[in-house]
Amino acid sequence: MASKKNFIRRYNSATPQNVVFGIFTSDEIKKLSVVKISTPLTFTSLGHTLPGGLYDPALGPSQQGIICTTCSNSIFGCRGHMGHIDLPFPVVNALFYSNVIAFLSCSCLSCHRILFPEARKVLLIAQLKLLDRGHVVQAMEIEQIFSHAMSMNEGLSEEAFAAIVSGEIDKQTEVLMHDEVKTVEDWKQVEVLRNQFISNIKHYIFKGKNCPKCKEPWKKLKTVKKRIMIEAKLEVANKFKNKTSKSGPELTPIREGGFVYLLPSESMVHLRAIWANEEKLMKEIVPVLKSVSGPHPTDLFFMTVVPVTPINARPVNFVGGTVVEHPQNYVYKLILQDCLVIRSIVHLMNTNKETNKENDLLSSERIRLIEQLKGSNLSEKLQISWHDLQKHCDSLLDKSLGSGSTTAVTDGLGLKQLIEKKEGIIRMHMMGKRVNFAARSVITPDPNLNIDEIGIPDRFAKKLTYPVPVTAWNVEELRKMVMNGPNIHPGAVLIENEEGFTSRISADDVTIRESIAKTLLTPDENSLSKGVKIVHRHLLNGDILLLNRQPTLHRPSIMGHKARILKGDKTLRLHYANCKAYNADFDGDEMNAHFPQNELARSEAYNLVNVSKQYLVPKDGTPLSGLIQDHVISGVRLTMRDSFFTREDYMNLVFQALSFIHGDIKTLPPAILKPVALWSGKQILSTVIINLTPRGKTPLNLTSSAKISYKAWEKGPARPWLAGGTPFSDPKIMTEAEVVIRGGELLCGVLDKTHYGATPYSLVHCVYELYGSQASSQLLSSFAKLFNAFLQIEGFTLGVEDILVVKKADKERLKHIKAVRRIGTTAAAKALDLPEDTPTSELKQKIGLSYRKDPKFRGQLDHQYKKCLDTYTNNINQACLPSGLLSLFPNNNLQLMVQSGAKGSTVNTMQISCLLGQIELEGKRPPIMLSGRSLPSFPPYELSPRAGGFIDGRFMTGIQPQEFFFHCMAGREGLIDTAVKTSRSGYLQRCLVKHLEGLTVHYDLTVRDSDNSIVQFRYGEDAMEVMKSQFLNKDQITFLADNLNNVLDKKVVEQLKSGSDNEFIERHMKKMKTWKKKHQDQPYRRSGFTLFSEEMSLQHSEKSHKKINKKHGRSKAAVKISKMWCELDEESKKRYEKRSMKCPDPLMSQLQPDAQFRSISEKLENIMNNYLEQYNITGELKEDIKDMISLKSCLSVCSPGEPVGMLAAQSVGEPSTQMTLNTFHFAGRGDMNVTLGIPRLREILMVASKNIKTPSMEVPFHQNLHKLE
């Protein structure tokens, strides 16, 4: 007997082409139903299901042991059956509220005609028919036929004009209407266009008081909470008689403000009559009506029968032996109770109690219940109960629609709630779900791993398994694993036979394991299928795992890591270099690990999402992995000029970095031979770089700079050279700030964060560009191990000595602080436009008055304080940093950290050694209370800067309690800002991803949406992928030329040239060169029309002609010139076209860049030509550089299938999490701010409003203007 798995493999499922949704009619629901539900009760007192209840056995078994009475299957075999509830009165189907309201509100309820002009109806029907057949353009152009007919037939009657329009449209569209129906899936805007056509006709609705057809008064309709109300006149008081129910009770309409409610039964009658007159139009507007057979298709808008879902969709839950019903039952019970109440009221209204008491079968309890209902009489009670029934039926589709009933739906879920949001069935159970073969734990750092490795506890390794087919090549290894069993690593957990049945390997019985191991290659005698056995082995070293840290904001949030099994650990071990990609730290963060389960998934993980392949971020092509903190410090200390090592230390450090190399390691001769052979730190790094250069490649050449400025290394003023010679034009040359690598050897400069951090065009980035991702990952891993080993030898610490200031600088600081404490009166006087010698009491009084009267005064006062305080803050900082420190760079470890980019910034050093400065909240000084105080410890309207949040203290010597409180206020603002922006940026990213996820690059290099519509003819207009084209710019061409042998593969170039149209390319380039030479003065491309416009605009230079018309956004002159061009004869147009001489199209638009060699963008061609001219390169080298750039361009073309829409969404969404929520405030203008950060992004992408909150304009000044203070 074949296994279930093999059966599924053999099953060929159909591939659906499209999905069409429809609506069941009441008759169809009854045919599908197996039982009528009539009672709200579900179980008896003994716990048995009630027939006719919501758990009737005919709907399916409710628990194990019960047999379905419909199909005679158990709970496992029965697929469930539908039931139904008969409603006493019809209710509106909640899906069609808008349709019912729209049709009734635009129709006359006397003659039942839709009050649009007949010609407009004909036009709309034709447009919608054409759209359905896929003729989108013709549907848009048909309105021109209508406009032409209208202009030619003015004054005709409506019917006559409609007949003419119908004839004209039929004549124009006769062939199209008889075409086979096409699908309109090729253009996604069809539904938008359809809605636009329908909304256009609403502008032409009849606006008179009496119907133009029957001359009866046209009653207006309005809706209140989805209830339709109609104008009530005295003569329609008895309009409800004999119309509302089958038994014919008389209803008195409920009045509200001159309107009465239009009941669903009346709406049904009206729509039936409207259908009889307007069938064609209604069919086109609501296409679902076409699929309904019967005399009254509009009954589809109403419900007389409610379907009841099978029991397996509403399963019973047992909690502690008690039956708990599904929440969905709550809504069904309310509907059933409403039905019983309505039937009871109708029974009472139809029964005469005085003459026929024996017929009254209602119990006294039921009568008391009816008496307690809202309403003064039975008629009102019936209408209110009917309204409740409507709301409860609405709740089946959308719970929020049932809020207006007397018994609001608190429990249960509507169909909308089952589908929508994160908890809905699509997002929770289909788009994402819980998975097997995954692990989750806290992450801890491990610098001894390679950057593409992940440390896995052996406890996880024993649980995560991989299915390996048994072959003659791996049987010995698998036998050992089977013998080890599930508890000894490396072992095996399961064995799967040829038919797909699995059995667990025993952990205790060695004999069973031996027998399994011996028969791994022996086929089963009873097996019907040919195949091999599969062993589910433990996770091993080198297996690939997908690591993920949530939130998954961009592509590198999931990367492939090779497993390294660690005995005894319980946490995942991650290398520091990956922290930026995952936005991870080690303060309790957790990560998920997923183990791919087949060879295809493993191949993708190794080759596509491996850490080494994710070195560059897709957002802007900048590096993502890099060494941080301790490694940066170690790297700087190691490469400084005074770092020398003995042979033993040199060999030890080199081996730490290159321990994975099998074979000989190339070493360098010592830098110093006598008295002792010594190697410099630069030589150690050079040895690593040379040994990691791939075979067949030449070591790289690089000229760059370090992050640490050359000024930091200066010990005194520059002096002339003792041996003479010309001084360098650039002071950076031959200093530690200039990094020079030749032939893989570091000759000059210190390597810091700029070269092995996550920095563009760093040493590691250059290695990635020349040698590939594997070489750059190895280099980073080797550097990390080397720096780690060196730091263990050298050590690094930070002490009080690094923050102390010399006495002279401290005195200077105190002098400035005394002066700044007296600045308050000056700043306040300037803000109030008063003299500086104004008494303090008067200033305080004026400030209090200004605060109360002028809301903008706070901003003006803040501006003056900041302006005055900035000077003093800068003076204090200059006095102490960096020359005022007791220990100077590079001996000052804090300065070394900051300058090298390891950790911290200049602001940190200022706050430690100088002062904290002005505290700001939302770009302003801390606000004052109603009492005029910023804190209770200050007097009202205190003028000193300290009261306004200026802290002249420093962390080294401590700050006052008030200053500490101000500092905490700023810190709290940051925490709240972080908490709030997380949810906003998350929703922003979700919106972006959902809109752009369909955009991909196709084989013709166009960017297309999921419906194949073109969004861009070339991705990014040049078809270049951001990550591949980082070095194709004017600053990096020199680097590529210096490493020409590594970039240029002449064999590949010859093959590409042989397959390209070289003659056409040369001809086109000459043509472009000729045009550029002739039109050097022309800054832009011109056409005949633009040339004509330039000449004519000189003749229409009056101001009145230049005034812009707001309707079409053009001036009188522009409109006149356009008309003149249209009326111009063809010969004159040709003369203008000849004079303008159109520029040849770019080469990339003629030849596809990935198929034709030398088909490069104009910008890249200009960069290449400028470089060749600048360095005067000629001959063979010139051709080689051209070939190199063309080859690089060809390799940089974006690959077909690249999900560029998703990458674009992630590239905007991920950085938005780092943005601030606050608006940016202009210094000195409290009333003037600019919307930035997440609010600005939301304004652009989600609101897309024409009226932006803070419009701004950049106005450039003329050159050579004097600077004004």
Description of the molecule:
One of its GO terms (molecular function) is DNA binding. Residues 299-639 form the RNA polymerase N-terminal domain. This is DNA-directed RNA polymerase subunit. With 1269 residues, this protein is an alpha+beta fold. The chain has 6 domains: 35-68 and 309-351 and 368-417, no CATH class; 94-242 and 249-298, no CATH class; 436-613, Barwin-like endoglucanases, CATH 2.40.40; 630-711 and 734-794, Orthogonal Bundle (Enzyme I, Chain A, domain 2), CATH 1.10.274; 800-959, RNA polymerase Rpb1 funnel domain (Topoisomerase I, Chain A, domain 4, Orthogonal Bundle); 1026-1077 and 1116-1197, Tetracycline Repressor, domain 2, CATH 1.10.357. The chain is 41% helix and 10% strand. The strands form 11 sheets. A 6-stranded mixed sheet has the order 10-16-15-18-9-17. It has a 4-stranded antiparallel sheet with strand order 2-3-5-4, with helices on one face. Strand 12 and strand 13 (502-504) form a beta hairpin. The chain is globular. It starts with a helix and ends in a 22-residue tail after the last helix. Mean pLDDT is 83; it is low at 1-11, 234-247, 352-359 and 1223-1231.
